[in-house]
Amino acid sequence: MKVNEAKVWAIGVAFQPDTARLDATIESLLPQVTGVIVVDNTPNPSAELLRYWRGWTRRGVVVLALGRNLGIAAAQNIGARHALRRLGFSPLHEVPSGNPRENSGMAPREKSRETSPNEDTCRAGDVPGVTAVKTGEIPGAGGKDSPGAREARRARARGNEPTGGDAALLFFDQDSVFAPDYVAQIQAAEMVEYQRLVGDVTGGISVFGGLAFDHREADPTKRDVLAYRDTPRGPRRYPDGELRENKVLPAAFLIASGLYVPVNVWQSVGPMRAGMFIDHVDLEWSMRARAAGMQTLLVTAATIDHQLGDRVVKLPGRAQVVHVHSPFRVYYLVRNTCWLIRGLAPIPTGWRWGYVLWLAKFVAFNLVFAPGRRQRFAKILRGLLDGCRFRRKPREMLQPKRSESGCRAPGRGILANEMTGGLFTGKSVRKGQGC
C-alpha cells in the first residue's frame, strides 16, 4: 500500500468540551481520515453532553465516554488501542508505568498504595466509566470477528499482510481545527522522506506534525506558532522566517495535536506514559521516539488552528506571549518538569539545565503576574514535592467525583460504535433522570 493510501484513524480527547469548537474540529477531520475516535474524560457527563455525543455517533464518530478524568495520556492510549483493533492490528506494548523510575535507570521505590490509571488498568470493566462489552457485541471493536480482524485475515491469506506503514494514528485536541489538506500535506512529506532515506515507501522511520497557530490572535502575522527546534539548552521556538516556506524541518518534539504516527512506529516506541496525566506527555513520547532512532519532523505546509493554555498575556520587554494555565495545570507542569529534570525522558543534560531555568521562570510568573497567587503557590509547592518524590497522582484525582446531587459518578460510561450508530452503556440515561 502506498503511503498516500494509508488508513488513518484520528484520536482525540475531550474534557468538558466547548461543543461549538469541537464541532469545527471534528468537521475538519472527517473528510480527511478513515475514522474519528473521541475519548471523553468528562467526569459524570451530563445528559446534554450524552445527547451531543449521540449526535456524532449517528455520523460515524466513535465516542468512548470514560465517566471520569483519567488524563490525556491514558485516554489517548485507550483511543489508540481501539483504532488498532479496527485496523486489524494487536496492541503489542503496554503503556509505560506511571512510575518514572521504571525504564529510566533509577532504583525502584516501594510501590505506593495509589494506582495511576494506565492501559493495564483501563481495560473494559476494570476502570469506572469503561463499558465491559464482549467483542462480539460491538461490530468493529476488535476480536476475531471484527471487520478489521477479518480484513487482516484475508490479507494474510493473500500473502499481503498489513504492516504498520499501511496505517497511521492522528492525534488531536478538542480545540484544534485542521486545514482541509492537513493529512494530504503530511502524507506527501512522509512519502518524500521515505524515498529520500530508504529509496522505497516502507514506513516506520519518522513521525510528523504540523504548524499549530494560536487562533486567539486576530492578526495572522502575530500569531504564536508552536514549532520547536533542538538547541543545546532544550526546545526553542523556530524563527518565523524558517516557517514561511513550505518545507520539512527537524523538530525537538511534536505537540500531541496533529501528531501523525505510522502504526509500526507506535508499536516500536510504545504508547503515551499514562502516569504523566497531561503536561509534557507529547514531549516525553517524542524523546522516546528519537531515542529509538525515529525522526520527529515538522511539515510547515500542514497547519492547525490551536489553543494552548486558558489565555495569553504579553509582558513588557518580551516579544513572545506567555500562556496562562489554570492552577490545576500548574501542578502538573511543575511536577512533570521535575520528572524530566530527574531523568524520566531520555533528554540531554543541557536540556535538563534548560528546564531548571524554565521552571524558575514559570514559578516566578505564576507567583507575580498570574491571578490566584495563593492557590498557585500551593499547587507549585505540591508539584515540587511530588516531582522530587516521584509521586504519581494527587490522591483526590484517584477517587470518582460526586455529582451535584451527591451521587458518585456512574460506574460505567458509554461506548458508541460508528457502524450501527448504537450507544452502549452500563447504565441508562434518560432525559431528566437523576442518579
Euclidean distance between termini CA atoms: 50 Å
- CATH homology superfamily: Spore Coat Polysaccharide Biosynthesis Protein SpsA, Chain A
Stretches where pLDDT is under 50 for at least 5 consecutive residues are 93-98, 100-150, 152-164, 199-203, 395-435
Number of domains: 1
Rg (CA only): 21 Å
State the secondary-structure class.
Answer: alpha/beta
> From N to C, what is the helix and strand string?
EHEHEHHEEHEEEHEEHHEEEHHHEE
- Reported CATH architecture: Alpha-Beta Complex
Strand residue percentage: 15-25%
Q: Which fold name corresponds to the CATH topology? A: Spore Coat Polysaccharide Biosynthesis Protein SpsA, Chain A
> What is the overall silhouette?
globular
Number of strands: 15
What this model shows, in words?
By secondary structure, the chain is an alpha/beta fold. It has a single domain, classed as Spore Coat Polysaccharide Biosynthesis Protein SpsA, Chain A. Helices cover 32% and strands 17% of the residues. The chain is built from eleven helices and 15 strands. It has a seven-stranded mixed sheet with strand order 10-4-1-2-3-14-15, with helices on both faces. Helix 9 packs parallel to helix 11. The radius of gyration is 21 Å and the shape is globular.
